[in-house]
Amino acid sequence: MITKPRHPVRRLTTYGLGNSEFPWEESLEIRLKGPLMADDSNLIRVLREEYLTPPSSGEYNLMLDKEGSKTAENYNVYRIGFGSWMRIYGILDKLFGDQPSGVFLEAGALDGEFISNTLFLERDLGWSGLLIEADPFLYKSLPGKNRKAWSSHSCISPANYAQKLTLETYHPRNKTMDYAAELMIRSTGNLEGVKAPAKGQMGIKTTYEVQCFPLLSYLLALNTTTVHYISLDVEGAEASILLTLPWDQISVTVWNIEHRAENTGFRDFYLEPGGIKPIPPPPKEKLRSQGKPNPPKRVVYITEHDPAGGKDDYLVLFMKEKGYALYDYWDGDYTFIRADSALCEKHCHVI
């Protein structure tokens, strides 16, 4: 359970840079640009006081509830037309529908409603949690949804320390595009230098500076290191986040991770000098080496063969080594369940 963070008394002192001429606050501001380690007490204080917005006590203000509105009808089309969201919704209902309420974290929360993986858990099942969104355009609409979760206009750092990074966002070239389509384009924003799935081809680019914190820092700021569900949709930064995560300091039951095999972060991790023996190439590479045509691309399930080679076996191996079983794969979306959990004992036999 997330408890209300306690805000320590602010004291003016010198901090950390080895220069007594820097006031504490000025020094901390400089160090926020990187690096400040995930469990630094002053970092946690700043995150609590300046980057966390508490849950709303008001009534929900959702497009989902605006029946008869053309705008809402257009906005809500993802609920019947966006296969990825529909599949994850079904998985969460199956895994958690009969479970006690838990704690979630959603990174890439957009406006707090559109294609949200956690709204169902919060509204229907009584969960609490944290919503993280880096894009200022998207985040400005999030508080108005009156979610019963903490929120943060920031990003998860792709390292184990806090840092300020450049966020590349995209807006439509067509100014008459409807709002739902604009949100889809906005959802492809990525950190500068990251190999993002959309490759920056979705719209006109605008850049912003964004404060990023390690995933562990958010949890410590909320006085918990136990999370029952994490949705990680961070447009290419997932490998760096997971590879630098202190796994022995947190407990997560279920992960949803959006990841494309073109992002070679996990592959590079295993193929570094001294790494393990490379995983055999996917079927399409074998066919290519034999001079045979590739099979047509199609969406696959984890219980099926993956002829397109879309599933990243290096990510699967990495998560297995961290104690997780792959429960489901669908076109770049992975669901992992902690192998020693009661939830896996109940559901993992379907793999």
UniProtKB/TrEMBL annotation:
One Pfam family in the UniProt entry: Methyltransf_21
Biological process GO annotation list? endoplasmic reticulum to Golgi vesicle-mediated transport; endosomal transport
The Methyltransferase FkbM domain covers 107-263
- Gene3D superfamilies assigned to the protein according to its UniProt record, in alphabetical order: Vaccinia Virus protein VP39
Q: Name one GO cellular component term.
A: plasma membrane
- The name this protein carries in UniProt is Methyltransferase FkbM domain-containing protein
Species annotation: Halocaridina rubra
